[in-house]
């Protein structure tokens, strides 16, 4: 394999220089992690990548829209990707517009698309009833030349992939592998409890990296700080972890359990509980959690069909809940409708349900469908994408709260929402 120099994560141009070197290599990089989950790969054998595909097909989708196997935002929520039964599409979020489309001529489905900001480098995993690639392989795809430039192979199904400019993180059902992006060398592996959702979050802009994932016990979170080389275990919930997210600076971590009633916010440095908010009283499946860029708000989507926005009080949150932060907040915000129950003054007398912090704003969606949330570029806006092809952009009032205002709606699988003839994938970071 041709030796390539490691990219400088602070210099996007060096990253593209690195990828150009990798592209010129005479062989496609392969790697097998040295453990029981790995699969032997012969570097001299031909790659499982199909031959280069023709240029992006600008024709419309047929009357029957393709099935959606995967939806995810990129690192700064500026765009999102959809893995389909015939390829993948990428869209800009704010404002909404088609960004890129790749059809694979019905050769197979894409079950996972991991974007690297807005670069032409992404990772693909096959999915659906007829996957384009094995569900046990991560294919590193370079869109500028429409070809695979590397692959990672395993014996277990790949559940998730996270990307930084210097790292690739691959999540398996009970293990996580961390690789150098430059040479695909394994630098760390982590054992987890059974993790069918592939839960894992990393800091994408801060350096060194912080990684959070399920621990080895039910309800436990593991925090890996690669700067201090410390591992912190946090008992976040009594039941299994269902969802998690981190702030961009990796200081705050939000988690939800399979019960779906409470969302807890932790300090990643010491594992202390900073805040607890309540989605509702009924059991629910939490689909996604998202912090705003300023860490003042937290959005939550669930199978109940309501997106909630909670106020995150980082300053007052530096006190633990044991110091009665809820009571203090209730006295200063009594009956103001901004998420603190007016009955909090009776904390210790009434059940905990009545002293919970409630959402500031809500947006109603069809119940039972899977939606993912992020905060938009405009102030106090939320972006919602659904597995039915729906795209919403809403705005909430931080003062009066209540129902959010819908600003925008699109069906992103609509035949009009695609690139025009001659438009190409941007080659910018």
TrEMBL record:
Keywords: Repeat, WD repeat. Its main location: membrane. GO terms for cellular component: cytosol; phagophore assembly site membrane. It is a peripheral membrane protein. The keyword Repeat applies. GO terms for molecular function: phosphatidylinositol-3,5-bisphosphate binding; phosphatidylinositol-3-phosphate binding; protein-macromolecule adaptor activity. Pfam families: PROPPIN. It is found in: Preautophagosomal structure membrane. Residues 26-52 are annotated as: Disordered. Signal peptide: none annotated. It comes from the Eukaryota. Belongs to the WD repeat PROPPIN family. This is Autophagy-related protein 18a.
